[in-house]
Design goal:
heterodimer, A: mainly alpha, 2 strands, 1% strand, globular, B: alpha+beta, Alpha-Beta Plaits, 7 helices, Collectrin_dom (chain B), Collectrin (chain B), transmembrane (chain B), cell membrane (chain B)
Chain lengths: 536, 216
Amino acid sequence: MEKDGRPNWDSPMQFVLACVSYAVGLGNVWRFPYLCQLHGGGGFLIPYLIMLLLEGLPLFYMELAIGQKMRLGSIGAWTSISPYLGGLGLASVVTSVYLCLYYNVINAWSFWYLFHSFQSVLPWAVCPINSNRTGPTEECEVATPTQYFFYRETLNISSSIEENGGIHTGQALCLVLAWAITYLFIVRGVKSTGKVVYFTATFPYLVLFIYLIRGVTLHGAINGLKYMFTPKMAELANPRAWINAATQIFFSLGLGFGSLIAFASYNQHNNNFQNQAIVVSLINSGTSIFASIVTFAIYGFKATLNYENCLDRMRLLLLNTFDLAEDAISMDSVLDFYFNYKLPLFLFQAVEGTGLAFIVYSEAIKNMPLPQLWSVLYFFMLLLLGMGSMLGNVTAIITPLRDFKIMSRMSNELFSGLVCVFCLLLGLGFTTTSGNYWFTIFNDYAATFSLLFIVLIEVIAVSYIYGIKRFEKDIEDMLGHRPNWYWKIMWAVTSPLLLIGLFIFYIINYIQGGTPTYQAWNKELVNQDLLFHEQE
Amino acid sequence: MLEKILLLLSLSLSVAEGLCKPGVGEAYKVRFSIKTALGDQAYPWNKNEMFLFRAALAFAMRDFTNGEEFGVSDIHPCNETQRVSFWFVVTRPKTMDLVDKGTVEMAIKKSRNRINGAFLLTDKTLEFDGIYPTLAAPVSPDTPPWLIVFGVVMGAVSVGIIALLVYPLVQRKLKKNMDADDEDSDEETGVKTAENGANDGIYNSTFSDDERFTQM
């Protein structure tokens, strides 16, 4: 316990694990592999690693330094730098509130899938039967069973964002559970968070490792891996690849929310955060690459399976149409009769986000031997990744607000409880039938643009308002040596320029995009085989 | 006499042949996928198997119509192919009247399992074109299994939260009892050290702010 009564991490290891647990989240699993595929497989690593050096590492280091020096949450820390910058901290808190509202809904979905894995037949493996008992329900027939389970049984989704329905009770229960567990983890502040992160930071790696072994031994996984590891260097000429690399590094490290400042504020004054910053950033990027190997193995398996199923269907169709003997056409000779299907076509269906995690992966899992085990493992890992990130998000709200004198009169437990209940009640809106559309709005717009702005102001404030010289001295005070020229150039020149570039790009994109659109799942269009349709 | 019988027989056969026309009237197509179902243990398709099929179908008709004496000769197959698929029609016993499609369909639906079993096949590998198998009713347990797992986890979390909230209150109560005992012993030692001399630099607990530190 320090002299000013601020709680501390029990050891520097807890701090590192907390940062790892926060930074390594769902985005590493479902956004990075998608970007990798979009921008030519292995070649994407080059812009990714370059952006890590130019932008990710310096900004991460800067946030940790500020938190550890000021020993206050984001609002207090920025107010100490300049009284006019208090709004910057407030912006971080508001963005964190938005994030907390919708992020725990993903954890609720993970819980839902996890609980439904304890059945002899996974519910997303087969379609439910219609009332005549002649076949699957119409909606499920047009879509696939996994899509049906996600959109109809998990979300009970309505046809458009305007159509509101009631709350899905199953979802609401899972959301309550998600918030209860979040409260359980943060109720004692860093004392409880510090113990929990030992588990939430390490166990996902165990599961990823198990999945790696399982994944590469699956039939057809090698096709996916080959696709990933053959880099298409031509993609590097596409500026989109570089922009996506920059944004991915930026959001993956969780900069701008105030969580890193909050975590670092509980450090000892002399904690060596420089090495820790490098370690955490490298672990984060390494996990992304690791997860994409697993994902591509799963893609390869799924694509090969679909391909072979398709060949089999063709074979059956040929046999039935021409009434040939059953062994007249084997699987290999189908192609002699019918030329159009090629494997790479199936690999081309890149998916990201909740579609990847809940539809593509669960479809792959249902085809594995002993699917219940793999399903439980997978969704448990998703839960740990999501919960780990939630710890950081909620800490980013509570720590700055606790620094205000008014709030500190309330006990820790009561304040944390109030924050959790508040977010829970508002989050129930995402469990209604149109909730997924609201979720998409929040996911796409709540944090992205604001964060760029926040971090841009942060780096300009530190480099030019506070001054690099004063910042250097503070770091020397804490670490015992000054940061070398690499860090200083990045803070003063490269990172601000990069961020301004990204900011301008986003604005242009937004203006050019016109009215935002979204994809809707429309039950009424089942007869026209058009389950997904864009709507303005 | 013999010639007349032969003539009648051949006539009836040719009429029956005429009755069974693929795709027309009351004919149904059936398709066997024996190698798909049984693999190495597949039996070859021959006249005996065809006889078994006709017998099974005759049984199905008898069972449905409650005793009308259908026989093997009332099932007329035609257009047999290598796939093992063929068309067939059903005629009323002792006449050449075709049984309508609806009745045949219902008879087959009723005895589908028995027909499948006779050939060691399933609904998927023994297909009647146009007759959809009746799928098994879904099993719905009283409590959905997910709710049970949810209940367990929720219960554990609630216990955890209550434990974490109650524990420090209990600790504080115990400490208060301990402090009440400690204060008496402190007064004695405090007096003793003051007598020994203040030069030893012993920490004077009167000005400490221990209270603030212990409360988080």
